[in-house]
Write a structure and sequence with these properties.
The protein is an alpha+beta fold. The chain has one domain: Alpha-D-Glucose-1,6-Bisphosphate, Chain A, domain 4 (2-Layer Sandwich). The protein is 28% helix and 45% strand. The chain is built from 5 helices and 7 strands, in the order βααββββββααα. It has a 7-stranded antiparallel β-sheet. The chain is globular. The termini are far apart. The model has no long low-confidence stretch (mean pLDDT 92).
């Protein structure tokens, strides 16, 4: 079940929007706290592909491994990460509509351990504040490039 979600309509073709989103070199444009994203496995994008994310958290660079857990070109993908008892799954769905592309994003936050479970609401709010506006930023980037 999603802990937070968002949806946006982008006036661009689905193929273009999907390619921009899955192009990890663009991540810092739509997720400002992400400094860098590097693919660390060989081969084409597919479930199991891994990336190393470098993110600024409270003024410090932190690295975390991100795994592509679902991938359907031009339709959907999902990523998973886990660090120190905190796991996230981000799901993205792309649908071609008359106006362009509808993108839907859902985030699931998983916690392990008593302290993490007790503070889950705070953690979800913090993650939402950091990553919850990525579709808004995506729309601004994609429609600004017309």
């Amino acid at each position: 079940m999603a802990d937070f979600k968002s949806s946006v309509i982008i006036e661009r073709p689905v193929k273009e929007v999907f390619a921009y989103m899955i192009g990890m070199e663009n991540v810092s444009e739509i997720m400002p706290n992400v400094v860098k994203m590097e693919k660390i496995t060989e081969g084409p994008l597919q479930p199991g592909t891994k990336f190393m994310e470098t993110r600024m958290i409270r003024g410090r660079e932190m690295q975390n491994e991100i795994e592509l857990i679902d991938y359907h070109e031009d339709h959907s993908y999902a990523t998973k990460s886990e660090i120190n008892g905190l796991g996230t799954i981000y799901r993205y769905d792309f649908q071609e509509i008359e106006e362009g592309t509808q993108v839907q994003f859902e985030a699931e936050v998983q916690t392990k351990g008593l302290w993490m479970k007790l503070t889950k609401k705070f953690i979800v709010d913090m993650i939402k504040k950091e990553d919850g506006f990525q579709l808004k930023y995506l729309k601004e980037e994609m429609e600004g490039k017309k």
